[in-house]
Amino acid sequence: VSDEPREVQVDTRSGSVNLTVTGSRVNVSSMQGQVVLKLKQTDANVSTVSGDVDVDGELITGQFKSVSGTMSVRASASRVNVSSGNGAVTLNLKGGEADVSTMSGHISAQGNRFVRGMFESYTGQIQFQGGPEKNGRLQLKAHEGAVNLNIPGTSNDVIVSTQTGAIHIQGEDFERGWIESRSGNVTFEGNVSASGALDVQTDGSVDLLLPETVDANFRISSVGGHIENAFGTAPDNGTLDFKTGTGRAWINVKSRSDVWVRKHVVDKIEQPRSEADILYDQAMVLGDDVSVDDRLDAFRKVLRADRTYALAHHALAKLYMIKNTPT
Question: Do 78 and 60 form a contact (C-beta atoms < 8 A)?
Fold first, then answer.
């Protein structure tokens, strides 16, 4: 379909719908048939009962609903609303605002530069990878399902809540993070930016895996649980208050179970040894049974590989003194 007509309307009971549309507004209603759309600069409104929906392209706005069909949306858009009762939802969105909800369907979302993102499921699991726009906001809410969140860059407002589902968050430089669960366990792997804040509340356990360089004030409390702190300060009667660095950020944890505050130690990458290093080791193993001249030649080879190798200069000076030969 080209730029004309201005609106495309399709109603079907069981037949599949496959459209490629540019510019026109699209309205599709289907009972059981699959709906496949390739769109460019369009507004789209799609509803099905059990039919699956697959959308790809550039949207202005999009609204996609199904009772039990699966939903897959890959698009750039200013605003997208996706909802399904029992079907799974897969969303890959570049920019804009997103509202995604299911009753029991699994939600898998990724994207970047979200102005706002709201993801909610009653019993389904929520997985999200991406990040909000500066001053953006992400909210993930699950009742019984788990939430897995991975934000590779700086994030502003992040709100995660569950009733019984576990929460696992990975991220860098959280500005403001609110994590709450009625009884689910919470795992946080990441950092809080300078002047940022992280607040965790749950009756379940809490595991914080933080960089060794974290700069924050901590207030940890556990009613009935055990607190372990890898940063040194010991808890006192179920509470732990301490500071790392200058204490620029704020980290607050309230739990009725165990709390672990652990260090994330980054393994140092071993650098390959240089030619000068290898030659120096070979020169150093030469004993007194080797002539001074041969040992001098061995250290001179080191300096031919690296003229600034200080240890070789030092060894040469000692050998010249032994030989009583001026440098």
Answer: yes
DSSP-derived pairing of the beta strands 259-264 and 167-181: unpaired
Verify cis geometry, omega within 30 degrees of 0, for the bond prior to 235. Answer: no
Distance CA 124, CA 174 (A): 26
How far apart are the C-alpha atoms of 255 and 280, rounded to whole Å? 57
The total of other beta-carbon atoms located within 10 Å of residue 318's CB is: 11
Rounded CA separation 256/95 (Å): 38
C-alpha to C-alpha distance for 228 and 189, rounded to whole angstroms: 16
- Rounded CA-CA distance 136/11 in Å is 37
Cα–Cα distance, 241 to 255 (Å, whole number): 14
The answer to whether the beta carbons of residues 41 and 24 sit under 8 Å apart is no
Please name which of 45, 46, 111 lies closest in space to residue 74, comparing C-alpha atoms. 111
For 235, other C-beta atoms within 10 Å of its C-beta total 18
Other CB atoms within a 10 A radius of the CB of residue 16 amount to 13
Is the backbone of residue 297 left (phi > 0), alpha (psi -120 to 50) or beta? alpha
**pTM as predicted:** 0.77
* pLDDT 10s digits, 273-309: 889 999 999 998 888 888 888 989 999 999 999 999 9
β-bridge mates for residue 175, sequence order = none
Number of neighbours of residue 222 by Cβ within 10 angstroms: 20
**289/124 Cα distance (integer angstroms):** 76
pLDDT of amino acid 326: 55
Burial of 210 (0-12, 13-18, 19+ CB in 10 A): buried
Residue 1: is its pLDDT beyond 50?
no
